[in-house]
Fold this sequence. Notes:
Blueprint: H1 15-24, E1 28-33, E2 37-41, E3 50-53, H2 61-74, H3 78-88, E4 91-98, H4 106-131, H5 143-149, E5 154-155, E6 163-169, H6 170-197, H7 201-205, H8 213-223, E7 229-234, E8 252-254, H9 259-272, E9 276-288, E10 296-304, E11 310-315, H10 317-328, E12 333-339, E13 347-356, H11 361-372
Parallel strand pairs: 11-13
Antiparallel strand pairs: 1-2, 2-3, 4-6, 4-7, 5-6, 7-8, 9-10, 9-12, 10-11, 12-13
Helix pairs in contact: 1-3, 4-5, 4-6, 4-8, 8-9
Amino acid sequence: MHQRPEHRPAPPPDPRVLAALLARHGWRRRGGSHGHYSRWTPPQDAGTSLLVPEDSTFPDSADLLAEALTALERSAAPSARAVLIALHLPSDEIRWWRGIPEPRVPAAAWTAQERLRAGARAMLLAGALAARGPAGHHGARRRRDAETALEPLLVGPAAGGRELTVFVPAEGSRPVVTALLRALQAARDGCDYQRATGRWDALDAAVAAGVSRELTEAVVALVGGSEGIRVGVEWAPAAGTPGGFAARPEPVEFSPGDLPALREAGARYVRDEPSVSVLLTATVVRMRREAPDGAGTVRLRVLAGADVTQVRALLGEEDYRIAGYAHLLGLPVRVTGRLESRSGFRRLADAGGVLPAEVDEAERDRLLKTMQENLDALGERDGDG
């Protein structure tokens, strides 16, 4: 006989956390009983009124909190949803403000919203990459892990393309927020120093703080066509303030006057990022050459040896022949070369020394199945390049 699982309601939120979130999202405290509870109304005075106990020791605090949550769920105030999200999933909040005129037609509003969302995502990706280690130009390196780190994030509406909030779960995803904030502050300081002195010392040194080509491109994309942007961070009240940061960090601002320094810094980062010598283990995905013999180009899916997913390489005739045989046999290859910064670490320069790599029978069968599903990949004349 199976017993039905006992339904246990979620514990009520900490009243202090609820009050902090209401204040953060513009709700107004309208008095109440001092030392017992406070009354809150939304920014638009939409008729909703919440009673929030001062702490959980107040009699009937659980009932008051339950009523407050029900009122938030029914409230028409846009900020009520943001408060509920932050209550159910303690999150750091990153806010973007972009200085543009009010869009006059729906198409312009949609375009502005998409630009804001795309720029914010690019900035978050730069933060996720910085959290995995500093580099002036990340390119294709570590991108899969960085994109995976963004999956738990919840993106709010981009009202009119001028304001956007992203909720970042404090548990597990906070390193993205701290890395991004640290990098933005370093970029701001570097731009100020460069504009005041004409020197690049501060922006060059800012790489160690997480500034990268990816970050400068994201900032340039958002600032372009606007009066400027502002990025602010609010820590999850339930998780507290991370070490080394202010409890209420000042928003970081960028204006069109920063664009020349940011563009040049990005170019410097690509130029200065060194190539990486690698020994890759990879499977051949595509092959192409213009004649029946001679050198040819291959695309490789990287299994080990570098934090990239695919690379292209130009192989000499013998290396190309060995790569083709390995592909037909369902075997990966080992190949040496240099991943170059200017290609985003997507091209393997000076590639050579191709040899088949030994794999166990199960892995070989899997590779053969993959190859058979993509037989058209092996086209020396007509294959894709």
